[in-house]
Specification:
The chain is α/β, with parallel strands linked by helices. It folds into two domains: 154 residues, 3-Layer(aba) Sandwich (Rossmann fold), CATH 3.40.50.720; 100 residues, ProC-like, C-terminal domain (N-(1-d-carboxylethyl)-l-norvaline Dehydrogenase, domain 2, Orthogonal Bundle). Helix content is 49%, strand content 14%. An eight-stranded mixed beta sheet has the order 3-2-1-4-5-6-7-8, with helices on both faces. The relative contact order is 0.08.
């Protein structure tokens, strides 16, 4: 399949490379900066461009992997150049109908994973959530997704909103907790890598246990003595103390619900 990639960020880099390895022809990579376009284009044997007017019109699919804030504008600009092709976006939080009245065939291919340019991911195990507005789009998006992943799900925009929200808790918020842990340790000259075995063990548990059952620590039983002492250690950072206290209450609340 002939593909134009709109965007050259973390997701576009990993998705584009995986599609290239799967045998698809990446004709062109568009990015706001030529440096980014060239970097990805060199990996997928494509032509780079940073000019909307230069975007080719002979691809089968145009895949938009860009920031949510610029997606609508880029769709409008490219739809003025390209007609009767399949437009696809890769965002978890954006509705499929952002293409409405701008494209005839369109849909979503949302790979739920955290991506970075520096680290290749194995797409075969990444769940991909698909949506389409017609049979032509559906067939093409399923072919693209199926060529790189063994875990394909059809999902509506409304359900995908909650999927993405859940991913924010499971990934972004968890990683932020790592960052907070790092800051606390750094102030006391303790290396963060002492936490890695604990992090790995905790993450490993949820592969075989319900996350609520895997929870340990003073908040589960709501040991007020321990919680109060630890909260006091955060008196110099009211925001962090508030996070600690609210998280502790939330942990305890879920554990009590599980008992009922």
């Amino acid at each position: 399949m002939k593909i134009i990639l709109i965007g050259a960020g973390n997701l576009a880099t990993n998705l584009g490379y995986s599609l290239f390895v799967a045998g698809h022809k990446i004709l062109q990579v568009y990015s706001r900066t030529m440096e980014s376009a060239k970097m990805l284009a060199s990996q997928v044997q494509a032509e780079p461009t940073n000019q909307i007017a230069s975007v080719r019109k002979d691809a089968d699919a145009y895949i938009f992997s860009v920031k949510d804030s610029v997606l609508a504008d880029l769709i409008s600009q490219i739809s003025n150049l390209v007609e009767d092709k399949v437009f696809i976006h890769t965002a978890g939080s954006m509705p499929m109908d952002i293409f409405k009245d701008k494209a005839k065939h369109y849909g979503v291919l949302y790979p739920m994973q955290s991506f970075s340019k520096e680290k290749r991911v194995d797409f075969s195990s990444i769940p991909c959530f698909l949506e389409s507005n017609d049979n032509e789009s559906k067939a093409m998006i399923e072919e693209l997704a199926g060529s790189i992943s063994g875990r394909i799900f059809n999902m509506s925009t409304d359900d995908r909103k909650y999927l993405h929200l859940s991913a924010v808790f499971a990934c972004n918020f968890v990683n932020h907790c790592y960052a907070l842990s790092h800051e606390i340790l750094k102030k006391h000259n303790i290396p963060f890598d002492v936490m890695l075995p604990l992090i790995d063990e905790t993450a490993g548990k949820v592969h075989v246990m319900d996350p609520v059952d895997a929870q340990t620590g003073p908040a589960v039983r709501y040991d007020e003595n321990v919680i109060h002492r630890q909260a006091q250690l955060l008196n110099d950072n009211i925001e962090l103390r508030d996070i600690y206290e609210k998280m502790s209450k939330s942990i305890h609340h879920l554990s009590k619900l599980k008992e009922k």
